[in-house]
Amino acid sequence: MSVLEAPAATSVEEAELRRDYDALGERLARRGVAIDAIRDKAAAFAVAVPSWGVGTGGTRFARFPGPGEPRDIFDKLEDCAVIHRLTGATPRVSLHIPWDKADPAALRQKAGDLGLGFDAMNSNTFSDAPGQKLSYKFGSLSHTDPGVRAQAVAHNLECIALGQALGSKALTVWVGDGSNFPGQSNLTRAFERYLDAMREIYRDLPDDWRLLTEHKMYEPAFYSTVVQDWGTNYLIARELGERALCLVDLGHHAPNVNIEMIVARLIQFGKLGGFHFNDSKYGDDDLDAGSVDPYRLFLVFNELVDAERHAGPDFHPAHMIDQSHNVTDPIESLMTSAMEIQRAHVQALLVDRGALEGFQEANDALMATTTLRQAFRTDVEPILAMARLGKGAALDPVLAYRRSGYRARVAGERPAVTGGGGGIV
Ligand code: LRH
Ligand code: MN
Ligand code: MN
């Protein structure tokens, strides 16, 4: 088994970090912020890693695999364990079925050995699995054929059963259902069929589970999509019941959409279930979180932190990454993304909420926005590094990973994979 331990910090590294941390602590104290409390919150922060993210992604045109591609879910779990060991921020893995289908006892054993748990289960009715009886070419949960709908419902129930055996507590449903031509599909009927099928799934959802539905504006359907936006997603959650919540994948909106406002609305009406973090420039680009627009990521966390002040114990949106890594080592990208998400969270914790409220009440737009920017501009790296140090993770995860030679080692164990045509996501 390929496991990697985080290297201990040298005394020089630790002393340098301590100095940076103390200097930042002094500056924050002047702003009335206790740095240790922020560090503790940073240490408690976790985001789940997608099993499908540790393999090299692809586009519709090609996939260029890297060395040491994971062969199966067990290799994927090992890669996920590296990410968690080095960052200390990713204790759980989100599985995609049937891609990750395996004996639940073996999965539990492997994850346990690696110190990992399982996050939300993801069903897949947007592609046909080998040997599958009926095709999802023209849809799944909203298909015109009741047989196809029943098959898609059964698949989701199977995901729940597997998840129960693994200790998961949520099912995420994303469907590619939609149409490519005006008139191809009756927009209302399709949504009715989808809702009926989802009601069947919800009926069998264990009491302590949440059902997360994910909207996406387009792709693979390019004219209409059944669950296309947060409004439709909200309707689904409201129709199904209390344990049905909306999942916001940051890449699934039209360009320039104000995602933080969507987040605020869903929180206000008790329907924010969680996130798929990534970044994008044009569409569902699945780029690394915070790599294009870190301010937007911060603004999303600003809403979350603001909500936490008033929220009840039930407010714990699921934090998951959903990315596709085409030109980087997926382990490096996922570690960097986890840290960027953690950074946005910490920066949002630094917002002077009292001052912000005062400026908002006084309609002082400039000072209000300056208050947000002051938090965003704070270099919180010493806080993140100190949180990692306290957990026995690596001070510099990417550097530690490169020095470890992990990729070369697994490349020796895992057969090389040749490139190919289009991939998904
Ligand atoms: C769809 C999506 C959804 C899928 C994943 C593989 O674009 O974001 O979350 O489950 O990609
Ligand atoms: Mn997603
Ligand atoms: Mn996506």
TrEMBL record:
It holds the Pfam family AP_endonuc_2. GO terms for molecular function: isomerase activity; metal ion binding. Keywords: Isomerase, Manganese, Metal-binding. InterPro entries: L-rhamnose_isomerase (IPR050337), L_rhamnose_iso (IPR013451), Xyl_isomerase-like_sf (IPR036237), Xyl_isomerase-like_TIM-brl (IPR013022). Residues 92-286 form the Xylose isomerase-like TIM barrel domain. It comes from the Bacteria. This is L-rhamnose catabolism isomerase.
